[in-house]
Amino acid sequence: MSLLPFGNLPAYAPRKFVPADTDLGDWNQLRPLFDRLAARAPACASVAGLEQWLLDWGELGAALDEEGARRYIAMTCHTDNADAEKAYLHFVEQIEPQTKPRQFRLSEMYLAHPLRSRLPRGRYEVFDRSTQVHVELFREENVPLETEEAKLSQQYQKLSGSLTVNFRGEEKTLVQMARYLEEPDRALREEVWRLVAERRLKESGRFEEIFGGLLTLREQIARNAGFGNYRDYAFRRLCRFDYTAEDCVKFHDAVETEVMPVLRELQAERRRELGLASLRPWDLAVDPLNRPPLRPFERVDGMVEGTQRIFDRLDPQLAREFSLMRDQRLLDLDNRKGKAPGGYQSTLSEARLPFIFMNAVGVQRDVETILHEAGHAFHALAARDEDFYPYRSAPIEFCEVASMSMELLGNRFIEAFYAAPEAARARRDHLEGIVEFFPWMATVDAFQHWLYTHPGHTRAERNAAWLALMDRFGGDVDWCGLEAARAQLWHRQLHIFLHPFYYVEYGIAQLGALQVWANSHRDAARALEDYKRGLALGGSRPLPELFAAAGCRFDFSSATVKPLLALLRDELAKLN
Ligand SMILES: [Zn+2]
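A: This is the predicted complex of the input protein with zinc ion.
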């Protein structure tokens, strides 16, 4: 019996290079394919021959990518199945370490190819520049350092995951404790918040030690690659060709001047509604009017029906695409025993079809998640006709425009789930979440800029730098007596430890999504057409062009942020 939710999905286009009966989990069958590509490269004697070589190389990449995705999906849908786990680990531990150096070698051969300069420039410039970075940053001596980095990252995850508290006689994880912060009983919230903060503070020395180790390794990795600091190295490694560190600093400034006043207004309103003299850190997640949580649906079928109704009203093409995903069983959405936590969208690169995984339990957050992941799925389908595999996916800064726009556009028809007053509340929660996200994003990003441009700093200095950012972006929350916890709030932000500099992307994408939404207020049909046009480009063009095709400016200064915040404020006022 197959462990995959969907049935047989044929490749979108028949393979031309990888034999149909190849076992993609067997390195002995894959090796000859890499050998053939390596032998063929120097023999490509025409531009057309080199282009065919690129397509064949991409075909192999897509086949491997889909194989990995299928094994991952099977494992996450059946965490209690030992065979599924074994099959996935085999691929990650036995196949990928073999394919990576071979892919690297092919990249080198491509860059050195004498005919590369004769390829149509507009077609290949985006592929060329990321391939170049991939090759140019590689240093043999960084391989063991990266292994060390991965080990330390794992220690962070182990430490974070192991933390529990004893709450009223029961051992609870910190994740389990988070939901008590939504309880109307303020004394309970405070008790829970303090318990968690104290537990974390007890480990603060270990968190600092792990981070110190990561910092040292990263500084060395950057030096080995010829960079003066890790920030500049990270920008290059993340292929940030279209924006600079200075642009990010401008973004932080724009958040300070344009977002902070709106955040402070929202906080003041919350404080009044709760009837408090000041907001404390445990007053931020509770419903300010003490209402019970929204209940958009009872069963997952109801969520799928409701989501379909939203797309039926939004656009006939997107409605057809969502309905195709239902028919092909490309959705696994219910929370059940034996399923991994969380949610994701994955693309089956040969079938060129998307798959959505979720653990829906009947809360408003589930509706936001299905709209979000559906946006990613529409992106994959929009780029389906692109034959060059690397161009069927876009950089993350634009992928998240596809998904976050869909949350905003879909929310317009949220009555598919609610009567009018609840619909207004759901919209309000969503828009408030967007306002609150920007300052946190700016704090996390600006902190990392500071960390990696102040070599030799002490623990005390970096906590002071964090506090200065909390003063700038924390708004009007009263931390009196909680200074130690506040200074080390960054210990809970996984990205700082595991994925350095990877966070501003969500802020950039949210600006794009808000622009799509703003466009839809002026001309809904046109905004949607532009959105689809941007998605259809896949990853074939640089970010500013993807944004432009979707009707947005790729700019994060006040000029872009200001009107979007004005719109958010107007819409929030209407929902009161
Ligand atoms: Zn996403």
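The longest strand covers residues 353-360. The mean pLDDT is 96.
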